[in-house]
Amino acid sequence: TGVLLGVARIGGESAPLLKSFAYIGLRDGESFGLLALASEDPHRFYPEMGTIFLSRLGDIIAAALARHLT
After folding, report:
1. Cα torsion through 36, 52, 57, 48, rounded to 10
2. Neighbours of 60 (CB within 10 A)
3. Residue 24 · residue 32 · CB < 8 Å
4. Helix or strand (DSSP H, E) at 34
5. How far apart are the C-alpha atoms of 47 and 20, rounded to whole Å?
6. Alpha-carbon distance 29 to 42, whole Å?
7. 26: which strand partners?
8. Residues 62, 33: contact at Cβ < 8 Å?
9. DSSP code of 43?
10. Cβ contact 20:52 at 8 Å
């Protein structure tokens, strides 16, 4: 139920339509955030999916945010 509450907060009114999710930790030495991606397509994100692109996206966003958080 905690996950469902988190989805409702992230998706807002669209939360019931969201079917697949990817969560990417944001780190700059230590974790400081979480990037949550969601899709109405139930097959957009899946366990066998490669993570290289998502990991790189997290690295880029973390680097950009870290400059503003310190």
Report:
1. -20
2. 10
3. no
4. strand 30-39
5. 10
6. 33
7. 33
8. yes
9. T
10. no
Tens of pLDDT, residue by residue over 1-59, are 345 445 556 667 777 888 988 989 998 888 888 888 889 999 998 888 888 999 999 99
Reading the block at residue 55, the tokens are 């990991």
Question: Considering only CA atoms, which of 25, 33, 38 is closest in space to residue 69?
Answer: 33
pTM for this one? 0.72
Whether residue 70 is predicted with pLDDT greater than 80 in this model: the reply is no
Given this model, what pLDDT does residue 1 score? 39
The count of C-alpha atoms lying within 13 angstroms of the C-alpha of 60, restricted to the half-sphere facing its C-beta, is: 6
Task: Give residue 7's pLDDT.
Answer: 56
